[in-house]
């Protein structure tokens, strides 16, 4: 589906480098490490949003559909929940079905300002799923949520993945336990250097073969 051959990424100093990663259908991968170590930067490179790096990003033919759920829900404030989804859904029924799947059908007529952060994140997740992606990218979906809301969100992601076994996932998280719960393999970043740690000091790995 996707292969990333990353030689170097950095600004004033080297942030990421020397990594070859392959992502195939059904893979579950979590980028885990401290703040500022390059997790979201790597996610942006995988998603094609950041092209300012040395190396190559290769996609399969036909190209996979990639959906990205950002930390901020990024909903249009002047549109209702349903209207936000209708912008990417093929029909009203699809929008309502997705809202039902994320347990927000009753909020279809609400505006983003009327939603909690947890609810807004679920709308953003539904919007990403509307694209029927081959690869779903989640950037810290549990950050800033209270423990009970975070647990509900984690369970929801777990359920959605079980319904879509062929959809690949790359998740950014601070918590390895959350990643393991949804069956993701861990790609850890060194807390001191930010370097990506692969099994046995290797430089190449398949997301489906990484060791937890």
TrEMBL record:
> Which Gene3D superfamilies does the entry link to?
P-loop containing nucleotide triphosphate hydrolases
* Domain called ABC transporter: residue spans: 1-210
Instruction: Read off the PROSITE patterns from this record.
Output: ABC_TRANSPORTER_1 (PS00211), ABC_TRANSPORTER_2 (PS50893)
UniProt KW keywords: ATP-binding, Nucleotide-binding, Transport
Coiled coil ranges: none
**Any idea which GO molecular function terms this record carries?**
ATP binding; ATP hydrolysis activity
The UniProt similarity line reads: Belongs to the ABC transporter superfamily.
Q: What is this protein called?
A: NitT/TauT family transport system ATP-binding protein
Q: Which organism is it from?
A: Marinobacterium mangrovicola
């Amino acid at each position: 589906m996707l292969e990333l051959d990353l030689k170097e990424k950095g600004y004033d100093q080297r942030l990421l480098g020397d990594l070859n990663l392959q992502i195939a259908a059904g893979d579950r991968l979590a980028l885990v490490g401290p703040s500022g170590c390059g997790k979201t930067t790597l996610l942006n490179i995988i998603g094609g949003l950041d092209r300012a790096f040395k190396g190559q990003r290769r996609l399969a033919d036909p190209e996979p559909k990639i959906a990205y759920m950002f930390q901020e829900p990024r909903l249009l404030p002047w549109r209702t929940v349903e209207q936000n989804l209708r912008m990417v859904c093929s029909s009203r029924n699809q929008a309502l079905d997705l809202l039902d799947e994320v347990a927000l059908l009753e909020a279809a007529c609400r505006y983003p300002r009327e939603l909690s952060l947890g609810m807004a994140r679920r709308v953003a997740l539904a919007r990403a799923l509307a694209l029927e992606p081959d690869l779903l990218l989640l950037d810290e979906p549990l950050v800033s949520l209270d423990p009970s809301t975070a647990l509900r969100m984690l369970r929801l992601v777990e359920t959605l993945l079980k319904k879509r076994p062929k959809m690949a996932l790359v998740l950014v998280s601070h918590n390895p336990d959350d990643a393991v719960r949804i069956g993701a393999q861990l790609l850890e970043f060194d807390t001191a250097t930010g370097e990506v740690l692969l099994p046995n000091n290797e430089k190449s790995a398949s997301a489906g073969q990484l060791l937890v």
